[in-house]
UniProtKB/TrEMBL annotation:
Keywords: DNA-binding, Transcription, Transcription regulation. It comes from Coprobacter secundus subsp. similis. This is LacI family transcriptional regulator. Residues 7-64 form the HTH lacI-type domain. The lineage of its organism: Bacteria, Pseudomonadati, Bacteroidota, Bacteroidia, Bacteroidales. Signal peptide: none annotated. Pfam families: LacI, Peripla_BP_4. Coiled coil: none annotated. GO terms for molecular function: DNA-binding transcription factor activity; transcription cis-regulatory region binding.
Amino acid sequence: MSSLKKISLKDIAEVAGVSTALVSFVLNGKNKEYRVNEKTAQRILEIAQKMNYQPNIAAKSLRSGRTKTIGVVVSDISNPFFAQLARILEDEAAKRGYTVFFGSSDESTKKMDCIVEKLINKGVDGLIIVPCENSERSIISLINNNISIVLFDRYFPDINVSYVALNNCNAAYTATKYLLNSGYTAPCMVAYDVDLVHMKERIRGYKKALSDAGKRQQANVIFLKQDAPRKSADKLLPKAINEGADAFLFATNMIALACLYVIKDLEQKTVRKLGLVGFDGNPVFDFFYAPVSYVQQPIEMFAMKSLEILIDNMANGNVVQSVLAEGMLVEAGSCK
């Protein structure tokens, strides 16, 4: 995220005609300690202000922990899962004297970067981020700038950074075994066509369950476009059913909603034969005329742990702490 440091100490020093060290003394409030001429100090401050040297001021805030604010960037605050997270984080942070600022990336790295930069410029003490696809460089940039961050829900295995997430492989494995044990012989998984670890792990768990049941060759994953899930589901779900799929494992809450719109328009005798399992509960499931079981994520624990790790890192330095929590299958009525 190169925009975090558009203006350097060196840039200001060159304009002011002084050394980089002198600029550092002034911007860190040490001009009197190092006996910097008052007029020179004032000129440096004016130049820094004109050059919009906000990122450096924000970084100083992050290191000192003076603002008692936290930035949270999720993919979509309207998603019930993230909305619940936001509610809990806001309440728990307030108990600790922190205010939380929220933003939605809409799965866009560019928008995520923009929100993160604005939060940093506001002087937040740390960040909880649901990273987008292809945002590795942005996360590494934050780490290199010594900004306290905790990744939530998703993480990058090759980046040494704190994260809190679901054990997605185990969760999908459990859900798939549930369908198989309920008598379904050809469960199909519906996922997003993205290169993110949580999606890969859910697919891996699904395939492992089928493999362990001697059905490795029957694994069938259909991929929806993340920016148009409903449109993709309209085409792919009926085709999967025609080809023999008798159950569906939906990889996310929003995928489940997109697919239920399609399923509700199928013949009722077809729908009644389908096994349906998703991730995260939704009030819609209660009103759907076919039972929809789901993997319940420990959202309260996620929020508490993310906040705990972030506050600890802000106070004591960035020590990497990783948490993978287990989900719980909630059965919705009889499957068969």
